[in-house]
Amino acid sequence: MKNLFEISLKNELRKKSTIINIILVSLVFIFVFFLNSYLKTSVNHLENDILDARFILELTITGTTDPKYKWETRDDVNKLKEDLLKIDHVTYIANSYAYWTSNISDDLKVTGLDGTVEYYAANNKSLPEIVYGTNFPDEDGDYMVCPENFYPSAKLYSEERFIPSTKKINIKDFLNKKITIKYDSRGGTKHYTRDFTIVGFYKNNPTHIDESTCYIPDESFKRMAEEEYIDDIDPVSGIHNIEIQTILILKIDDVKNLDYVKSELDKRGVSYSKIYDIVYSIFENTEKNVNRYTKILLVVLFIILLVIFKIKFEEDIKSYKLLSYLGYTKKEIITVNCFSILIQFVLATIVSIIILLLILPLTNLVFDYYPFILDKWRFIPDYNSIVILAIVMLLCIIMCVSYSVYRLKADFDENNNI
Amino acid sequence: MLELKNVSKSYKKNKVVVLDNINYKFQYKTFYCINGKSGAGKSTLIQLLGLLISPNDGTIKIDGKDVSKLSSNEKARIRNKTIGFVFQSYYLNPLMKAYENVMLPTYTDNSLTNEERKDKAMRLLQNLGLKNREKHYPKELSGGEQQRVAIARALVNNPDIILADEPSGSLDPDNEDNILRILKKQAKRGKCVIVVSHSENVPKYADVVLKIESHKLVEVKK
Fold first, then answer.
1. Most CB atoms within 10 A, among A134, A320, A357, A372?
2. Which domain holds residue B69?
3. What is the largest CA-CA distance in chain B?
4. What was the ipTM of the complex prediction?
C-alpha cells in the first residue's frame, strides 16, 4: 500500500496538470464555500433582523364584537389601548391618527427613491426614541420626526427594500431641513402646500417596516386632514366627515408569541392587519430563492469537478496501462488511481483553506471600507458551509473513484486489446 | 519453457481470425525473432505470450503450467515475476527519473526495501552503460538511452522471458545494434528472448527466426 501511495504521490507532485487541477478544484471549493457562506449569511442576517426587530402588528380599528369597546373618539381608542397593553407579551402600543394617503415630497426624491412618506400623528409622549436631533419643539408646529434608516419610497414592502445602504438617505443632510408637502382636497377643489422641518430621527432598524414612516404633531395632522376633507363638510351639520383611521402600533416581545397575541386580539374582536406577515413572506421567498439557486449552482459546480477529474483520468490511463504491462493487478492499479484522486483532493483542500484564510479577512476588510458592496454583511464561515463543502467533496471523491474504477475495470478487461 | 498449444485468437466473434492453431515451444537460452507483415498478428502473439489477452482456444504453458486459464490477478503476478516487456516507444513514465522507472516493477514486492530497489535499479542502469544518467528524466535522454532504461526495467525482476515489440524500431543503426547485443546477452545468460521486428538486422542476432504466415507461426531457416 505504501509503495502504491509512493507511485501516486510521485506522479501527482510532478505532473503539471496537477497544479492546474488543484487550482481549478480549489476555486470550485472556494466558490462553493463563499456562495454558501454568502447566501446563508444573507439569510441569517435577514432572519436575525426580523427576529431582533420589533414585531409589529398594525391594528386598524374597524370594529370590535365586544360592545364595551367603542372607537369613535380618541378616548375610545385609548381605552382599547390600555386593555390591549394588558395582554401578555405586548410590550408597547403607540397610537396615532394615520393618514394613509402617502405624500410624495420632491425634497425626498433622492438617490432614485420616489419620496413617498407615510405620516403618523404623534405627540412628544408617543414618539419613539429619538437618536438624532430632538422631538417636536412645539406640539402645535409643523415639525417632522423621521426614522434613522430613512427610505422614502412606495416600494417599501417589496424586496427592493433590501438594497445596499447607498440608496438610503444620509439623515445628517436632512436635519433641520424644510420638506414641502403638496396635497389636494379629496374633491380636488383646493391645493395646499405645507412646509415641515425635520427636527429629529427616531430609532429603527434597517429592515423594519417603518423606514418610510414619519411622525408629525397631532395638531398639524388634524389641520391637514381637515384641509383634505374640506369638500366633505356635512352641509347640514357643518361637521367634517373626516375618515381618519386610528392606528395602534402594537409591539410583541418575540415572534414565538405572535400567535398567542393574535388569539387574544381575536378574543377581543379586534381586527388587525399583519405587516409582520408581509415582511416574513419576503424573508421566506428570499430563503426559498437562495436555496433554489444554491442547489442549482452546487449541481453545476459538481459537474465541473467531475469533468476536471474525467480529463485527469484520460491523462492517467496511459500510465495505468503501463502498470498493467509491468504486472500490477487490477486492484493495485485501482488503488494507485484512488490515491491519486485523494492526493489531488487533499492538496486542493489545503490550498483552498490557505486561500480562504487569506481571503476572508481581506474580503471583510474591503467590506468595511466599501460597505455598499454588501451593506455591512460579513462572511462568517459557519458550520453549515463547512458541512456543505465536505459533502460536495465527499460526493466528488465517491463519483470520481466510482467512474475511474468502472473505466479501469472495462479498459483492463483482458479480452480488450490494450 | 514457454509453450503454445493449439492456440487460436480471433476478434469480433471469430470473424477476424488472427492466429490459428499455433503450436510452438519457446526455449530458454534462445533469442527468437518473429517476422511478419503488418497486421499478420505479431503484436497479438506478443500479447498472448505476455498474458495480456487470452486465447480463444488452446493453452499457454510456462514451465509446464497452464497459465491461460488463470485469473487476471494471477496472470499479473506471473507477468511481474516471469516476463519483461520492451516496447518500440519505450513506454517510460515521463514523470519518473530513469532509476525510478526501472524500480517500478519492484514495488509489488513488499520484501524489498526502497534502498534495495534503488540499488538494483542503479546497478542495472550502470551495467547497461547509463552511469550518471540514472537521475535524468526520460525527456533528458536520447532514444537509445531511453530504450536501455526500458530494458533495465524489463530485467529488474530477473524474469525468465523477455518480450520485445519492435525494440529497435525508433533507433538509428548504432543504437539498434547496441540494444540487440544487450538482448542477445540476456539470451546467452539463460533467458528466453522473443523479439517481434520488421528490421532486417534482428535475424542476424537471433538463434531462431519465426514468421507469421497465413495465421500460422512457422520457423524460417536462417
1. A320
2. 2-220
3. 52
4. 0.86
CATH assignment at residue B147? 3.40.50.300
Inter-chain contacts counted by CB atoms under 8 A, chains A and B: 74
Q: Does the structure show a pLDDT above 60 at A323?
A: yes
Q: What are the DSSP calls for A210-262, one per residue?
A: TTTEEEEEHHHHHHHHHHHTGGGB-TTT--B---PEEEEEEEES-GGGHHHHH
The dihedral over CA atoms of A311, A314, A319, A322, expressed in degrees to the nearest 10, equals: 170
pLDDT tens, per residue, chain B with 222 residues: 888 889 888 887 777 888 888 899 999 999 999 988 877 888 888 888 888 888 888 999 988 888 888 888 888 898 898 999 888 788 888 888 999 999 989 988 888 888 898 888 898 888 888 888 888 999 998 888 888 898 889 888 889 999 988 887 777 777 788 888 888 888 898 889 999 988 888 888 889 999 888 888 888 876
Give the pLDDT band of residue A410 (cuts 50, 70, 90).
confident
At B166, which amino acid appears? E
Q: How far is A325 from chain B (nearest CA, A)?
A: 7
Q: Which residue of A has its CA nearest to B44?
A: A417
DSSP secondary structure letter of residue A149? S
- Determine contact, residues B147/B88, Cβ cutoff 8 Å: no
d(CA A34, CA B78): 52
Pairwise CA distance, residues A290 & A35, whole Å = 10
Pick from B88, B110, B92: nearest CA to B100: B92
Q: pLDDT, tens digit, for every residue of B146-182?
A: 888 988 898 888 899 999 888 877 777 777 888 888 8
Grid coordinates given for B187? 539470451
The tens digit of pLDDT for each residue in A47-76 reads 555 554 444 555 555 555 666 666 566 567
Domain count, chain B: 1
Here the cell at position B122 is 542503479
Q: Cα separation of A273 and A336, whole Å?
A: 67
Domain coordinates in residue numbering, chain A: 2-49+283-409
B 159-218 residues inside an 8 A Cβ radius of A: none
Chain B residue numbers with beta carbons less than 8 Å from the beta carbon of A327 are 76-81, 83, 105, 108, 157
